[in-house]
């Protein structure tokens, strides 16, 4: 039941009451990532303690209040008090604000979070989280009260797409680790978790109609280690997958943190694990094993009606699991030699006057895009789906011809490789663009290849793109491909702290960014990570 100014009392959070404090914060003590677009620090503080209570007016605000309570409960040495009728934290609906925008006003007597949606309230809470001492992250030490500086913040993200991608097709990490990553994304106000769940080396999601995808496709007998072509192996099998029930739990966990999970189901390439489970999906028609080296051993034969049905069947189950408006179909690095060497594929292409493998891929991709659109979603894929050969420097791809067929317009092109001229062209043609240029955003690269500063200075809008097309640049994502990061600690080392730099790239306006200021703020964030046992790389000065 709700009524105007209904009071929800916290036990978790703390106070204001009659207590007073002479403490004031210095600007140097404030560490916020991403940096707010408008920030004012005032004298005095607000005190959180057992007397603090929250006022909410609707279910959306109640959801945000519940998250706030649960966030701090483990570290608070007091219980919920439902008898105090004096609220000191207010959620105020302000419909003039953009969906992810918020205003945070902290005075000695109260905290006010203004927003037009759950996302805005949530991001106001994350700012409060960063303004509080790092001890709130440590549930082994109970605290009676916390101080927060008095501030006025008006803030909103620069881009709608602020993503982190985890590749679990190569190495499966599991629900607990993914939830920890989601928590840190939330702290940094990132809103898209791009989940790479299928590839040559493993199939990581239960599909009930095709059980062999996980019974066979999720397990490989061995793993190449160190680097491509090393000749060395782990000497042990690797496997694992998410049940549909686990997926539902993780999707709900992400949604509570204003994070949309965008699944990636790779077609028509990077499909050897699926073909190992169901050989009829491929061009060779013979049994293959899930590869133990990170290479493609076959691709889907997209000329077969049964393959098209398989892809659509899988998508139907993904639609049920992921409410995301976007479904990522990969589409990168398709090795056309399998189609060129297949008599049935070649016969199909001649019969349908399809001149090149690139045209065949676009024809299939457009078909899938239409199916996804009919289901109320939008297809997304890596920029090879445009039919342009971006791999002329790769021996196996250098002779591939560009397609004459046009990619369907209701598609988001995920730019990762090649000249930015292609991204500019796509934006001018009206495609939505997510700019994840590999030489800057691929976190599997070492810290010499992508320094913290170069990550921070990444600009998603390509230089030379006219301002009227900037709306077609949705944002950017940073990606962790996991071929050579089999353990949690190795993943963490590659991701942290560069993920914080990319968070500020996606959120903060360019005229408000400053790398030195970011470095100072990062020191406090790193103390939080240390309390949580996150194995971040100590690279503040690069």
Automatic annotation (TrEMBL):
Belongs to the glycosyl hydrolase 20 family. Pfam families: Glyco_hydro_20, Glyco_hydro_20b. Residues 30-156 form the Beta-hexosaminidase bacterial type N-terminal domain. This is beta-N-acetylhexosaminidase. It comes from Gramella jeungdoensis. The active site is at 333 (proton donor). Its EC number is 3.2.1.52. It comes from the Bacteria. Keywords: Glycosidase, Hydrolase, Signal. Residues 1-19 form the signal peptide. One of its GO terms (biological process) is glycosaminoglycan metabolic process. It is an enzyme of class 3 (hydrolase).
